[in-house]
Amino acid sequence: MKKMMRFALMTALLALATCGATAQSTNVVQRANFVLKGTTQTPSGATSVRVINKDILAALNATGAYQFGPKALLLFVSGDDQTPALMVSEVSGGKTTTTDVSDYFGVTEIGNEVRSRNESTRWQTWNFAFDNGNTNGETGFQLWGSTTIHRGAIHTPGIGTLAGSERVQSDVKGVGRVQGAITIFSGSVSGANATLVKE
Amino acid sequence: MRTLFKKTKTITAALFCLALTAQAQTNQIYSTVKDASFVLTALVQTSDGGTTTARITNKDILAAINATGAFNFGNAAKLLFRSVNGGLPYFVVRESISNEVTTTDISDYLTLTEPDDAVHGHNSIVNWGIWNYTLNGGGGTDFTFWGFTTLYTGAIPTGNGGDLLRAVSLNSIGSGPGHVNGANAQFSGKVSGNHARLD
Questions:
Q1: How many domains does chain B have?
Q2: Surface of B (72-111) touching A: CB under 8 A
Q3: pLDDT confidence of residue A147
Q4: Residue at B13 is within a domain
């Protein structure tokens, strides 16, 4: 399973690399992983829900704009050390497609970061804003996260080596809706398996 | 007939007075206060490119508010959450000067907002929300902090033999960016409110 995931990620990266072959900037691509616990309103009180990548992909599908399958991957894609954009990649029939979902899902940095002396670590506050805009049961959230970015040399065969975000960890708290019900969230968002792609 | 009319008038007046009394009881505005406690850790950028940690508590917040030039709170000043009729609280500072108690609204400098609705547990005994605390202090110290807030409901004696069901304690656990003495900082920690009482 892990091997399959890695293969899918590599294929997605290759697709990212080939879809914009004219520009020559280098992006860092990481696999994004959301693990959120929600306390959600019910008619009689509150209950706990778990929101992970597959739920976010399902909510994106509920916009009607996408039809991501169960093997679709959520990615952080960032260039020039900027806050990443969210994209979804999937392999279907041997073909990899990568879709920018930033119309529904975005990440912004709030305030100013703090850096370690050797630049190996950066601490930032990130805001994750997701809303599928579904009038028949909106799912979305605003999350604020204390974010630690671990930097190092990222090497990708055929592309080279670049100092960038190797992995990222954000401890988040926030508020939103799960299928229309108000929900308070806490949890973690991480990015890992950094690879370089030429845009 | 005249007696009957007089009696009717008396009864009507009595009923009107009763109605007024009942209305006044319904419209009774209750304010409560809770002791507020900030215990934050700030990771602060140093001028030589490194980092250091600073502990930020009530006295630092009061010092930052004094540094705006608008106030001159003493060492014994108490930071309080004040809530009117169970609404979202705002911050006041209470201090006793020459046996005279003064209460100062500082909500222009230390602001509390709730970006979305709360989730209410069964019978609203426990409630959850996201609270945003913003300090606009002087001397280069400020922050914006998002906290996962849990509020516990209990009885507050009203002094006339009755009880008021209100949030008797709360805690907000979270993080956010800001500055300490002008240097970039990332804050994390806890804000709590306890010892609720009628004000």
A1: 1
A2: none
A3: 98
A4: no
CB contact under 8 A, A182 and B122: no
Task: Quote the CA–CA distance of A14 and A197 in Å, as a whole number.
Answer: 7
Residue A113 contacts B where some CB pair is shorter than 8 Å = yes
Q: Is B193 part of any domain? A: yes
> A1 falls in which pLDDT band (50, 70, 90)?
very low
Q: Please give the mean pLDDT across all residues of chain A.
A: 90
Rounded Cα distance, B42 and B179, in Å: 9
Residue keyed to tokens 């959850």? B128
Assigned domain for B115 exists: yes
Range of the domain at A83: 2-198
pLDDT tens digits, B117-127: 999 999 999 99
Complex confidence, ipTM: 0.87
- The reply to whether residue B186 touches residue A146, judged by beta carbons under 8 angstroms, is yes
How many domains does chain A fold into? Answer: 1
CB A23 within 8 A of CB A105: no
Q: How far is CA A113 from CA A76, A121, A136, B46, in A?
A: 19, 10, 39, 12
Length of chain B: 199
> Which residues in chain A are contacts of B173 at CB distance < 8 A?
173
Chain A interface, mutation test: which of B114, B145, B148, most A Cβ atoms within 10 Å?
Answer: B148
CA-based nearest distance B78→chain A, Å: 29
Question: B186 is in which domain, residue-wise?
Answer: 30-198
pLDDT tens, B11-51? Answer: 444 444 344 444 444 568 999 999 999 999 999 999 999 99
Q: Quick one: average pLDDT of A25-42? A: 96
